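User: Could you go from structure to sequence for me? I need the amino acid at each position, not a summary. Structure tokens:
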């Protein structure tokens, strides 16, 4: 059985909810990533911040990214998967919730992230085709 832990990108890092968006952008640059999980004061997942969130939700609205925090941008219920979960569960979670990045948690700690690129590197052509069709066909109808 292939698990979330087998296909994830290791070394994911949190951005604390109290950190500003300019710091988040610097961290994204340094890590060469487009999204960061947001942690609360107890290091629990409280959201995901994307580079697009910073641009569209802050900069384009005329706000100063040095004054807006990651926690202020956290919206909705964050989705995650346990490191021991089967890859079919990963696909279902990403497909059902229309998400492109999924934090991987083990023993209540962030251990990695799964992105569409990780799926492409680790799944069969049939699995990728099914996932792509279900996610993007659904997105086109909304």
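Assistant: Here is the amino acid at each position, in order:
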């Amino acid at each position: 059985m292939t698990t979330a832990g087998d296909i994830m990108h290791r070394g994911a890092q949190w951005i604390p909810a109290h950190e500003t968006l300019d710091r988040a952008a610097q961290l994204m640059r340094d890590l060469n990533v487009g999204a960061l999980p947001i942690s609360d004061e107890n290091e629990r997942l409280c959201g995901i911040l994307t580079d697009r969130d910073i641009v569209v939700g802050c900069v384009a609205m005329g706000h100063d990214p040095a004054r807006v925090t990651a926690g202020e941008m956290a919206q909705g219920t964050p989705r995650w998967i346990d490191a021991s979960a089967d890859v079919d569960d990963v696909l279902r979670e990403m497909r059902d919730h229309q998400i492109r990045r999924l934090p991987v948690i083990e023993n209540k700690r962030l251990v990695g992230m799964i992105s569409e690129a990780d799926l492409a590197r680790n799944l069969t052509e049939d699995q990728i085709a099914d996932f792509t069709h279900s996610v993007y066909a659904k997105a086109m109808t909304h």
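One structural detail worth keeping in mind: The helical segments are 4-7, 21-31, 51-57, 70-73, 87-96, 116-122, 125-141.
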